[in-house]
Amino acid sequence: MKIALITENSQAAKNGIIHDALTGVAEPLGHQVFNYGMYSAEDEASLTYVMNGLLAGILLNSGAADFVVTGCGTGMGSMLACNAMPGVFCGLVIDPTDAFLFGQINDGNAISMPYAKGFGWAAELNLRDVYAKLFDGERGLGYPKERAEIMRKNRGILKDLKAVTCNDMLTVLKNVDQDLLRAAIAGEKFAEYFYANSQDAEISAYLKGLTQGAREAEPA
Question: Fewest CB atoms within 10 A around its CB: which of 39, 169, 196, 206?
C-alpha cells in the first residue's frame, strides 16, 4: 500500500514526529510512505487544511496513493476538507480504538488526526498504536463480525451516493480556484512523488500543464 502523509501548516513542526511513527509501523509491514510535507513551519510551500483535502483528493483519485494520513489542530478541518473530495472517505481518528473501528467498519481511505488538541505526553506512542491498528492486518472485516455484511453493503451505498453528489476529480481540478490548486501542489516533493506514482494520465497532464503555465508566466 502507498501511504501519503500530509501535514497542515499550523502543525508542520510535528511532521518529523508523525513521519517517524508512521514509517516505524507501516514500512515493516511492507507499505510505502510518501511524505508530502509540510516538513517544517518555515517551508516555502504552506498547506492549509483546505489544501490538505484537495491534495488528498488528487493523490487518491489518481492512484498515486492508496491511503492518506493527514490532520490539523483538531483534525476536524482536514477531515471535512477531505470528505468534500470525490472518492475520499476520511475518518476523524483520535486513538487506537477509533482506528480499529474505522478500519473494520468504514474501511475508508484517509484519516485525519488532531495534532494540537490532546497532543501531549507520549503522543508518539498513541500515533504508533493508531497506525498499527490501521495498517496491520485485513481491514473491512466488520465489527462486530456478525454485522460485517450489512456494513459492507452500507459502504457500497455510501460510495454510490458520493459518486452522484460529487463531480469527478478532473472536473474538480478544472473548476477549483487555480491559485489554490497551485498552492496545494507546490510542495518540495510533490512532483517527485506524484508523477512517479500517478495512474491517471489526465490528472497528471492537467497538473503538469498548470505548473508549466505558472513557470512560463513568471517574469524573466
Answer: 196
**Position of cell 511532521?**
15
Beta strands in the chain (DSSP E): 2-5, 32-35, 67-72, 90-92, 110-114
In DSSP terms, which residues pair with 5 in a beta bridge?
Answer: 35, 69
Q: Is the peptide bond before 28 cis (omega within 30 degrees of 0)?
A: no
CA distance 179 to 194: 19
Q: For the segment 130-172, what is each residue's pLDDT rounded down to a tens digit?
A: 999 999 999 999 999 999 999 999 999 999 999 999 999 999 9
Sheet containing 90-92, strands listed edge to edge, beginning at the edge strand earlier in sequence: 32-35, 2-5, 67-72, 110-114, 90-92
Q: Is the pTM of this model over 0.85?
A: yes
The model's pLDDT over 27-59, given as tens digits with 9 standing for 90+, comes to 999 999 999 999 999 999 999 999 999 999 999
Judge contact between 203 and 172, C-beta under 8 A.
Answer: no
* CA-to-CA separations, 111 to 69, 205, 211, 219, in angstroms, rounded: 5, 28, 28, 40
CA–CA separation, 116 and 113 (whole Å): 9
Q: Running DSSP on this structure, what letter comes out for residue 118?
A: T
